[in-house]
Design goal:
Blueprint (H helix, E strand, L loop, with lengths): L5 H13 L4 H8 L3 H14 L19 H10 L5 H7 L10 H10 L16 H6 L3 H4 L16
Length: 153
């Protein structure tokens, strides 16, 4: 959010100094909240300035120091889910990690996860090793001549 303009701040303080209106009337006149007028007046009394303070940088990212661990986990298992990554990678302070936080961090680090779709399960190497061969067991497998079953209408 952008700070209010210096011109507006000075006009509000000038109105407060004339003491012709109450703070709530001044706030309505200039389209700001009463607390804003009060804060600006207090800052003017304390520091003789009403300029906006510099941006402090915002909230620090909890996963900022976990880049190496994230790289290692994604390289070890590229189709890992966000929930699994949240369990495996913890910040130094031990705070909670949400899937949305993990997703934002992966985007910042430009780490792409390869998702394995169900239709790709027979083609993906990791899934081939884990999945039983349907043709060998005969379960759920239609012989080529049985695939032409009659479709009810």
């Amino acid at each position: 959010m952008k700070p209010y303009s210096q011109d507006l701040r000075e006009r509000v303080i000038a109105a407060v100094r004339t003491q012709q209106q109450s703070l709530s009337e001044i706030a309505r006149t200039f389209g700001v909240s009463e607390s804003t007028v009060d804060k600006w007046a207090k800052r003017r009394r304390d520091t003789s300035r009403v300029a906006a303070r510099p941006f402090a940088g915002g909230r620090r990212r909890a996963l900022r120091d976990c880049a190496a661990a994230l790289h290692a986990e994604v390289q070890k298992q590229p189709d890992v889910t966000l929930a699994e990554l949240c369990e495996r990678v913890r910040p130094a302070d031990g705070g909670p990690v949400s899937p949305s936080m993990m997703c934002r961090e992966l985007q910042r680090l430009d780490l792409r996860r390869k998702k394995v779709a169900p239709r790709q399960s027979t083609r993906h190497a990791a899934c081939k090793a884990a999945a039983p061969d349907v043709r060998a067991t005969g379960e759920g497998y239609l012989a080529p001549d049985a695939q032409t079953a009659e479709i009810p209408r």
